Amino acid sequence: MAALLFFFLLAVSAVSAEEDAVIGVNLGTDVSDMPSPTQVMALLKAQNIRHIRLYDADRAMLLALANTGIQVTISVPNEQLLGIGQSNATAANWVARNVIAHVPATNITAIAVGSEVLSALPNAAPVLVSALKFIHSALVASNLDRQIKVSTPHSSSIILDSFPPSQAFFNRSWDPVMVPLLKFLQSTDSYLMLNIYPYFDYMRSNGVIPLDYALFRPLPPNKEAVDANTLLHYTNVFDAIVDAAYFAMSYLNITNIPIVVTESGWPSKGDSSEPDATLDNANTYNSNLIRHVLNNTGTPKHPGIAVSTYIYELYNEDLRPGSVSEKNWGLFNADGVPVYTLHLTGAGTVLANDTTNQTFCVAKEGSDKKMLQAGLDWACGPGKVDCSPLLQGQPCYEPDNVLTHATYAFNAYFQRMAKAPGTCDFKGVATVTTTDPSHGSCIFPGSGRRNSSSTNGTSLAPSSNSTTSGCLSQFFYSGGSFTSSVIIGFLVLSAVLL
């Protein structure tokens, strides 16, 4: 362990922070009613998206991107890789047709040569590095090599034993490709492109990976994953995989190549075998991912080091083969309507599809009733929420059960705290949703609905008539009870609740 820790200390500062992280979006086109390039540009501008990755080098799209300032990553499709990797002239022609013909009007900043070649097209792996070198040589000849980086996206599956990150390594059978590839990226000041999908890691883990850990939800310290070799704490799958890639490069004596995540996301819909492919989970993952990236948090191994990330993807692709989830990774439908409303308050100007700001905090179905009651009592007491609408005869009293009462209190606290990260947790029994939980005459704080007969539901300050400070038990639901000793113990521990 001491040797590993020493190795870690040598490598930890090798990647330097030169610029802030950015959020980009992938543009897939397997859409039955694909918007025109002009319509795509209109959506990108409306959503303040300044970075986009194409899976090809479509001429019409590149022309539409001209003079927009949007930074574009174009791609050499896998089916063209063998030809380019075997012929310098073919590579030069590709660059002339797809790059030189469009710059500088179109702001092409990177070329992704192939996509997950080692795992998806292994027979082309022997020519992968040649393809990168031939493309780069053509850029050098046109004096574009400093402006346009050349790399190739990898699936994170090429990293074996990714936890603990300090023991991760690339699949050794690919060393004849990875070693010269990394040396090429190093010599050209490029970056490692990596596709990271915590959704798939979570699905394959058979319950070993907690859903909250995959979704960037706040974790109590005792639930964080700890790398025993470095003592670094990991609060999400994404950071752990990025650091695993850094360590895997370190074991090949490469310590100064940054990482750009070329794909990451979460499906919003799945079939019966994919119960966690939901709107709320997709919203939670992408919202938290965007916030995490734009805060320049970095990773435990490289704190503060930018990890620019491209969300998969802009549109739902209904023509993609495979399971239901394969067709539902998009942020938008083909008509430009958001699939869900991102909760990005305070995350910057990227992706403005949260303009309605309609997000709520609700109690999780199936949660322990004692935990729900404890959270309810805390919100209505130390949390300073006005819970008077929950009193008998008031608009939110019915249905009289701890789940709906806790949902009201949790949401009122969440709204009162301006939806700050970590204010919708309540020891794991609460979650963020875009579905308005208001019902009947019970209007929840943050709702766009209005009720002329009652305003209690929209008050965030403690009511002057409320007796919550003297008697928390008035908010007990009639179907259960909770001892005062447990309440007192919970309040003592309230500092670690949120």
TrEMBL record:
Domain of life: Eukaryota
Gene Ontology MF terms: glucan endo-1,3-beta-D-glucosidase activity
Ranges of Low complexity composition bias in the record: 446-459
Signal sequence bounds: 1-17
E.C. number: 3.2.1.39
Membrane-topology annotation of the record: Lipid-anchor; GPI-anchor
Keywords attached to this entry: Cell membrane, Disulfide bond, Glycoprotein, Glycosidase, GPI-anchor, Hydrolase, Lipoprotein, Membrane, Plant defense, Signal, Transmembrane, Transmembrane helix
UniProt entry tagged with the keyword Metal-binding: no
Protein name per Swiss-Prot or TrEMBL: glucan endo-1,3-beta-D-glucosidase
